[in-house]
Each structure stands twice: as C-alpha cells, then as structure tokens.
Amino acid sequence: MRKLVTSCITALVASQLVVPSVLAKNENALSIVPNEIAAQQVLVKNTIWQYKRLTSEFISTSTTIRIRDIQGTQHISPYNTKTVQQVVGIVTKTDKNGFYMQDPTPDNDIRTSEGIYVYSKNHQVKEGTLVSVSGKVMEYVGPGYSDKAETDLTSTQISATTISVAPTNPFPAPKPVRIGVNGLPIPEESIDSDAFSRFNPEVDAIDFYESLEGMMIELPRPKVVAPQKNGNLYVLVDNNSKNISARGGTPLLQKDNFNPERLSLKVARTFVAKSGDTLDGNVVGVVGYDYGNYRIDPVGTLPALQDGGLKSTVTKLVPQEDQLTVATYNIENFSANTTSTTTDKVTKLAKSITTNLQAPDIIGIQEMQDNNGETNDGTTDASKSAKRLIDAIAAAGGPTYKYIDIAPQNNEDGGAPGANIRVGFLYNPARVHLAEATSLSANPIRIGEGNDLFMNTRKPLAAEFTFKGQNVVVIANHLNSKRGDATPFGKVQPLVLKSEPFRVQLAQEINTFMSNVLAKDSNTAVVALGDMNDFEFSAPLQALKGTVMTNMMEVLPKEERYTYIHDGNAQILDHILVSNNVASKTKIDPVRINAEFMKEHGRLSDHDPVVAQINFAK
Fold first, then answer.
1. What are the CA-CA distances from residue 150 to residues 46, 71, 233, 352 (Å)?
2. DSSP conformation letters of 100-119
3. Where would one find the signal peptide in this protein (predicted)?
4. According to a count of CB atoms within 10 Å of the terminal CB, is the N or C end of the chain lower?
C-alpha cells in the first residue's frame, strides 16, 4: 500500500536472488551476501526477504499471503474465519494481548492496509522483530459499551497458532504514512456516503481509516481540540480544516458533518491537556478501533505539550437595573453529600456564578441531586443540596438566592439510582419575585406530571416571576440523553438517532405549554432554557422553537455556537430560547469555563453555562 511513502522500495524477481543452501535447510537461518550494498537474506518460514542495510530497503520474493490480502478492500476480511500460513511483517507495537505488525513492502493500492493485529497472549516478540505468523483470521469486536456487538465495527486480526522470529533483529520500522497537508488528506465532508456499498477511502472517512487499520501513521504537530477524557485525546492535524471554534480550534458539529478529520490519541488518563494546546512534534502511532471510534495508539514517547494559553471567560453581559439576566447551568451531579460533591467544587462553583456569570437574576439549574446524592434510601428532597450552594454563593460575595423545585418521585426521573436529579431555579429575591397572581395552575409547576410521555425522564419546571412589573415565565429543561444513538463511526450507516423521536415529542409538549401561556397573555415574556441534549439545527430544537420562540443560540456567530465538547466535536446542548415578543431585546453569551478544560484547569462541570439578558427598559 502507498508507494508514495516508501518510494525507495523496488521488486526483485526470484531469479535475481541467490539462496544459500543453509537457508533451504534452516527456516531461521541468516546469510550475509558479500556485495556492495551489504545485503542480508532472511528466511522466515519459506519467505525470503532481502534487507539492504545501507538503504533500509526490504525486498521480498514471497508468493505466500500478505497482510494486504487479508485486509482486502473492504471492512470485513475476505479471509475471515480462514487459516493463513506464514504471514510476514515487522512488529511495530506490542501489548499484553498481542502485537501489531506491518508488511515493509507495500503495494500501490490506497485501499489496502499493510498492518494487522496479531492476537497472542504469550508472545515474547519485541518491536522491530521480523516475524512470520500462522493462525486464524478473525473479525474481532474490541473494547466497547454493552451494545458494542450491535453498534461497533470489527477489527481484522490473526489469532496466532505459531510465530517464527528472524534471528537477526531489530529491523527498522516501516515508514509511517503521513496524515494531513503534505501527506494523505482526511476526508472532511463524509464519514459514510453509501451505507458500505462501496469502499472509497478518498471520499468516506470510515473507509479511509479502515484502509489504515493496523498501520503506522504520522501526525505532524497535532493540535489538541478537547480536554483529555478517559485516556482519549482528540486532536487535529493541518488538514485545512474549516468550521472550527473561535477559541480552541475545536471542530464545530454541523447538521450533515460530524467532522471525520478528528483524531483520537490513546494517552494516559493522567495526561493533562486542554483545548488549544499543541503537541510540539510529530506523533507516530498505529491505527486501531474501540468504543465506536478509530484511535491512534502512539509508539514511543509523546512530544512535549505546548500550552495554548486558553483561559476561562467572564460574561460580557454587565448587570443593569432594567435588564433581567437569566442563565442555564448544568452543575453535574451536585448534592449536599460531601463525599461525591467536594468542598472545593462547591467553592469554585459559587465563584463561577458570582464572578464569571455576574450573579444572574434567575438561574435554571440542571442535575441538582437530592440531599444525600447517590445514597439510594428513598430521599428525594434537595433543600440541603441547594442551601449548600446558596451559602457558598453568599460567602463568595454574591446575593443570597432562593431556590425552588418540585422533587421527583424516588428513582422515577432518570439519572443515577438514588440521586434523583432534577431541574430547579435559583433566583435573587432582591431583583425578582415569584408571581402571586399567575396564569399557571400552580407556581412553580412541572410540565408533563401524570403524562405517560414523561415517565422515567426529567420533567420540565415552569415558574412565573415578576421583574419591574413584567411577568416572565421561565421553563427549566433537561431533556432525555442521546443514549442509544448510533455512533458516527459505527456499523449502522447511515446514522440512526434512536433517542431523537422521544425528544421531539417532549419538545412539542413544552412548546404547546409555552404557546398556551402566550395565548392567555401576549405580553408575557417566556424563556425556555436548559440542557436540551440536542443541537440548534436538530428536529427537537426546531419543535421546541415552533413559531412562538427564538433560539438565541442561533443568533451567535457560528464559531461561538457550542457549550459542550463530545469526542472532539464542539456542540450546543445548552440553549436559551425567548418568546418572539422579546427576542429583539435579548442578548446572549456562553461563558467558557468548563467544556474546553480539565479539572486540573478548573473545570466544574462538563457543560458551559449560558447567560442571556433581556432589556425591559421602558
């Protein structure tokens, strides 16, 4: 595969090689050929390799099966479940369960991989070893989530029965394939365009990475586009990428583009990196697959990390007497339980609200847990959890907020068992009041109470406030998660979003509620905010918006539209929508304090909060 990266390799016919008699008798023998290029002939099981020491070239006269034959020009090996004999390669990376090896004499077909994983738990080979492997070809479902058999691609491997090792080692590693500018460009528009009907690595990224499965690749000075999480570090190489965030250069999720140029490096879970940092050197690694994604397992030590200088932000929306500020903040499993919610988190969270968010008048909270967190003893009340945060905000110089919610029934609204996460409101009583005479049947009220549609999911909370004589109905939301959706680089193509229809139905119910409020009083300002678990262009958000609301996130420049980073994609999950009657008077500002950072940088949640300001000046 890819002579463009190993152009010095040429073929020799068998008649050009002189095979010493000792080689014919001893499959592990080595003979030095006394000529001007100081060549070695190496016989590993019936395969003759000539290695030119001075030029680091390999030449083979083998007629046996090659790695590229096993990989084929498709996702499933044409040799799947078949036994193969004497497959030769140089070991490029080892682990406790086996090793990767690569054919040092590639062909000129960009569709075929020259690398493969060999499963052999008791192997003792080392990197740089020339080996011959016999065994059974398998399509293996690697590490993944519980539904991996239905969702994930397989990886081609040889389950080894015998491994023969050349007597003189190590040999130089095959030259890695350079990715990006001055190398192979990654398809940027399409992951899969044909439901696997054609194998086209120049068009479809899922085929591009498959054509490199098991091979050594080189990433020139990769830029970090997301904080390290669970040992995965998402990066970009110079691939002329478009549609990236204004700050950390993270690819922005689009309606028809999941940015397949994102690359995931396997690193230690202790590796500290944030968006915008750069690995100051080239990274070489082998291409593998797990948890629904292709990943690069680095060979050797990573280059030093260059700090990109990314800092957290403070909202640009300065508090004003006649302007109401509202915010949405997913505070990620917050409770009064000091074991699960540390004092450090509480202190920093309070500071983020008073300083970075400038103490909004109303804050829609998501993931407030009950008083003892995940202790599953029937407790559902969250008043102590809320008080813990309120006291910390006051201690940080902020206002003394009041908190309202309606507790769920035990374990009926989703989330961790026993934690009873819910939505609620913090509000500043010096600025806003709960309305006494209200168009709502109760204040606050849970939308969907008693509606089977909302079973086993978080019910939105609506509350009516008064601000300077203006009635404002705010709905806090935390819609169902995207769990169950197919993975972009999975076996289900085109992508199926199983969670979306349910979210559309929930959004329609919430929109109906808001439409009814406005039908009763067209002067009421309505705000819908929260963690919607979907994107501004998605069907659920379009249903939520309907004809009566404006999604203020869509007003932002494209490069600022994100509150969350998942698998290296920047995306909006946290939204603030306002009724059309106040849209022209509203400003919005996502506050960058979490999504681009790790805990070591001050991260408090996996979501960035968002602040909006509505001008009610007469």
1. 41, 22, 25, 42
2. EEE-SS--S-TTS-SEEEEE
3. 1-24
4. C
Task: Please state which of the ranges 375-389, 438-452, 566-580 shows the lowest mean pLDDT.
Answer: 438-452
92 and 101 Cβ atoms separated by less than 8 Å: yes
Which domains does the chain possess? 3-165 (2.40.50.140), 323-615 (3.60.10.10)
pLDDT tens for 80-116 read 999 999 999 999 999 999 999 999 889 989 999 999 9
Question: Strands 232-236 and 263-266: what pairing?
Answer: antiparallel
**Rounded CA gap, 428 and 402, in Å?**
6
DSSP letter at 371 equals: T
Q: At what angle do helices 343-351 and 383-395 cross, to 10 degrees?
A: 60
Half-sphere exposure at residue 289, Cβ-oriented, CA atoms within 13 angstroms: 31
Which residues fall within 8 angstroms of residue 197, CB to CB, at 6 or more apart? none
Phi, psi of 56 (to 5 degrees): 50, 40
* Bridging pattern class, strands 461-467 and 433-434: antiparallel
Are the C-beta atoms of residues 366 and 531 closer than 8 Å to each other?
yes
The 323-334 sheet, strands edge to edge: 402-404, 422-427, 362-368, 323-334, 610-615, 586-590
Residues in the chain: 618
Cis peptide bond prior to 460, omega within 30° of 0: no
Instruction: Give the pLDDT confidence of 475-503 residue by residue, as tens digits.
Output: 999 999 999 999 999 999 999 999 999 99
Q: Which residue has the tokens 């230690």?
A: 268
- Strand ranges in 27-108 using DSSP code E only, listed in sequence order: 30-33, 39-44, 47-52, 57-60, 83-95, 98-102
Q: Are 500 and 336 in contact (CB under 8 A)?
A: no
Neighbouring CB atoms inside 10 A of 134's CB total 17
